[in-house]
Design a protein that fits this description.
single chain, 55% helix
């Protein structure tokens, strides 16, 4: 269902782009690709994959920086950026409830992106194994995440990362933004 939904959305975006002589850039990011949130017909055909080398946590920080620095005196832009940050990261493609609430939040399913992006960086940049990643995360997130939480989401990360390689194999190459991979 999600693949068909993504395909239909992408077909609509391609059609509109063709009508107005534009291009459609994909918005899938490094975090989504690492965890297997990639749909054939959506992310795989997304043209250029401009965010595929950028983790979600960096995107959030860049939005926050834009609200605080270059757009701090432009209240409309700043308010819009703050509204984007107030929304949950990457809600799934389910219709909202009749009250307008999001039915499913990605982080409820896969865990905190701050942990996954940390694990991804440690794995790709330094080749760390699970025990080292857990020890480093316990230090880095002291006071925010305990060992049981880190272990739980590290196991989810490892399972999803290695099980999702086939999804990353057919995604277009992306600009390399950081030292952790793209």
């Amino acid at each position: 269902f999600e693949n068909v939904q993504a395909w239909m959305r992408k077909m609509l975006l391609f059609s509109v782009a063709a009508q107005v002589r534009a291009i459609d850039l994909g918005t899938g990011d490094l975090s989504e690709l690492a965890l297997g949130f990639a749909t054939y017909g959506g992310d795989h055909m997304s043209h250029y994959s401009v965010n595929a080398g950028v983790p979600k946590t960096l995107i959030s920080e860049l939005i926050r920086w834009c609200a605080d620095v270059p757009f701090r005196s432009e209240s409309g832009v700043r308010t819009a950026l703050e509204q984007v940050l107030a929304e949950p990261i990457s809600p799934e493609l389910l219709r909202p409830t009749p009250a307008g609430e999001i039915r499913q939040r990605s982080e409820d399913v896969v865990g905190p992106y701050e942990l996954h992006d940390f694990f991804l960086h440690q794995l790709l940049r330094f080749g760390c194994g699970p025990r080292r990643m857990a020890r480093l995360a316990l230090t880095a997130f002291s006071g925010r995440h305990d060992l049981a939480t880190i272990r739980r989401w590290l196991l989810v990360f490892l399972r999803r990362f290695f099980a999702s390689q086939f999804k990353r194999d057919c995604v277009p190459n992306a600009p390399k933004v950081g030292s952790g991979g793209s």
